[in-house]
Design goal:
Length: 96
């Protein structure tokens, strides 16, 4: 299903809980202990929007740059840390 900022793209459910994931925090500069949520049904992880609190973009260890969204689906806020990471990734690895 398409990502709408409220439902998990993997399973379509909308129940999430905050998680602290030290591996994802090390890998991604935009992951903090207070902005990472886990789908309690399937385990998919997302960061949430600092502005509105809805889901911002999916995060997983094998993420490629084009899979990361840097504008909130719900309120159109941008996340500068995500934008910088995407920009850096495109310059480093090309547009995969
Ligand atoms: Zn899910
Ligand atoms: Zn938002």
């Amino acid at each position: 299903m398409n990502f709408d900022g409220n439902h998990c793209v993997e399973c379509g459910r909308d129940e999430f809980q905050l998680v602290n994931d030290s591996i994802l925090k090390r890998k991604y500069p935009f992951v903090r202990e207070d902005n990472l949520k886990l789908c309690i049904n399937c385990g998919a992880k997302y960061i949430i929007c600092d502005n509105c609190g809805n889901l911002f973009t999916r995060v997983h260890l094998s993420h490629e740059v084009p899979g990361v969204i840097d504008i909130c689906m719900t309120c159109n806020a941008t996340n500068n840390k995500v934008s910088q990471w995407v920009k850096f990734g495109i310059e480093s690895f090309g547009n995969l």
